[in-house]
Specification:
Distance between the termini: 35 Å
Number of strands: 10
Order of helices and strands: EEEHEEHEHHHEHEHEE
Number of helices: 7
Mean pLDDT: 93
CATH class: Alpha Beta
CATH superfamily: P-loop containing nucleotide triphosphate hydrolases
CATH architecture: 3-Layer(aba) Sandwich
Bound molecules: adenosine-5'-diphosphate, magnesium ion
Structural class: alpha/beta
Helix content: 25-40%
Radius of gyration: 17 Å
CATH topology: Rossmann fold
Largest sheet: 6 strands, mixed
Strand content: 25-35%
Amino acid sequence: MNAIIEFKNVTKEYVTGKHVLKAVNKLNFEINEGEFVVILGPSGSGKSTLLNLLGGLDSVSSGDIIINNKNIANFNDNELTKFRANEVGFIFQFYNLIPSLTVYENIDLISELIDDDIDVDYALNQVGLLDHSNQFPSELSGGEQQRVSIARAVIKKPTLLLCDEPTGALDSKTGYNVIKILHDLSLVNNTTVVVVTHNEKIAEIANKIIYLNDGIIEDVKIIDNPKTPEEVDWKF
Ligand SMILES: Nc1ncnc2c1ncn2[C@@H]1O[C@H](COP(=O)(O)OP(=O)(O)O)[C@@H](O)[C@H]1O
Ligand SMILES: [Mg+2]
C-alpha cells in the first residue's frame, strides 16, 4: 500500500499573550490510500487541530505534511485553497448546511468551487436521500442533515474525507447509519477516510487507530482485519 499522507514532526503552537500552547507536538504518522483511520483522544487532546492541519484549514508551526508527494506545509494561501476545494471533503459535528438552500442546492453549490462536473443525484442516492432533494435542512432530522453533508463532501471525489466528531450530535442508532455510510464510501470509492471521535466503538472498524493525548501521539495501532460496522456491538 502507498502512504499518501505523511506527518513529519508536525507541531502547532497557539500563542496567547506570553503563553505558548502546543496543541499538537511533533506528530509523526503515515496513512495509506483507502484506509479508514480513527483518531481517538479526550477533549482538548489536539484531534481537531490535527484534522485541520491535514485538511489545509490551518497551517503548521513546524514540520512537514506530505500529501500525494506534495508538502502542503509549504503551500501559499492560493495553493491551499485549491487543495481544500479539490482534494478534501469535510464533515463536521454540526453539518454546516446553508438553511436557505434546498438539499439539492446545498450540494450543487460545490460545482462552483471545483473543476470536475458533479452529479448531485448520484451523491444523494449514495446517502439514500434522493427523495429529499427539494426539502430544506430544517425539514430534515439530524441524521439526514449529516447525510446531506456527507453527499456534499463526497461529490468532489475527494482524495481525503475528513470527519470531525461526525456522530457527536446524533443518537447511537443514527450515528451508526452515518458511520456505515462513511465506511461504505471508503470501500466503494477507495477514499481515504479520517474520523476524529471519542467513541471507541467507531475505532473497532478502523484499519488504523491513532491515539492522541495532550497533543502527543501515544500509540498507533494497525488492524489487519477490522470488524465491519455490522459486527460491532453498538449497544442500541
Ligand atoms: N485557535 C486556538 N487558539 C488557542 N488555543 C487553541 C486554539 N484551538 C485549539 N486550541 C487549544 O489546543 C488544544 C487542542 O485543541 P483541539 O485540537 O480543539 O482538541 P480536541 O479536538 O481534541 O478537543 C486545546 O488545549 C485547545 O484549547
Ligand atoms: Mg475537537
